[in-house]
Specification:
The protein is α+β, with helices and mostly antiparallel strands. It has one domain: Beta Barrel (Lipocalin), CATH 2.40.128.110. Helix content is 15%, strand content 49%. The chain has an 11-stranded antiparallel β-sheet, with helices on one face. A hairpin with a 2-residue loop joins strand 8 and strand 9. The longest helix is centred in the first third of the chain and has 19 residues. It starts with a helix and ends with a strand. 23% of the residues are buried.
């Protein structure tokens, strides 16, 4: 009799917890246009530094279970930029990135390991699939995820909601992605250092 009396309450609490535990979807297409990836090729004769700003994608993050982290980040290949205009033309050309044929560079985040959370910040190793010039490779890289509840308004005053900031640093080899492999390595190293610092927003429904 007692169980029957309290059963509806127990079910309601379980359903409420299930709702609270649902992951939040963050949109990384930045209205401010400040999200960016920085890349560096440090060769013997020259050091090349560039940025990419055409970033978009959706990421699912559960504040109650930070390890349940998945999503996809996309970089528009034609947004890659270096200071020298001739060098930029080469970078986007068929032998290098081939932005016309392969307009997107993407990273699909599949799982986290070594997850540690302190306050708003979670550090971990993220494993996923990176696709450059149509070639897919699995990589694992350190990542820092900062969940900023109710902070969207501080970045976009017209919106209420949450922010998710992702910072990651990793290396890839251009030879792994058929980016002019074995060529000009005195001026353009095979190894590319990539630094990602991006913020996604989850506006609250009105």
């Amino acid at each position: 009799m007692i169980m029957k009396k309290f059963l509806p309450l127990i079910v309601s609490l379980l359903l409420a917890n299930a709702v609270l535990a649902a992951p939040i979807t963050f949109d990384f297409k930045d209205p401010k246009g400040v999200n960016n990836a920085v890349f560096k090729l440090d060769a013997i004769l020259e050091s090349i530094n560039g940025t990419a700003t055409g970033i978009s994608g959706l990421v699912q993050f559960d504040p109650e279970a930070p390890g349940a982290f998945t999503g996809k980040i996309i970089v528009a290949a034609n947004s890659l930029n270096v200071p020298n205009s001739m060098m930029k033309d080469h970078l986007l050309s068929e032998k290098w990135i081939d932005a016309a044929k392969y307009p997107e560079i993407s990273f699909v985040m599949e799982k986290l390991s070594n997850v540690k959370t302190s306050g708003n910040d979670t550090t971990a190793d993220v494993t996923g699939t990176i696709t450059i010039k149509g070639v897919k490779k699995t990589i694992t890289a350190p990542v820092k995820i900062s969940y900023l509840k109710d902070k969207l308004k501080a970045r976009l005053p017209q919106l209420d909601g949450d922010l998710l900031v992702i910072r990651a640093n990793f290396k890839v080899k251009r030879s792994d992605f058929n980016i002019n492999p074995g060529q000009f390595e005195e001026k353009v190293s095979d190894e590319i250092d990539i630094s990602l610092s991006i913020a996604g927003q989850a506006p609250k429904a009105k």
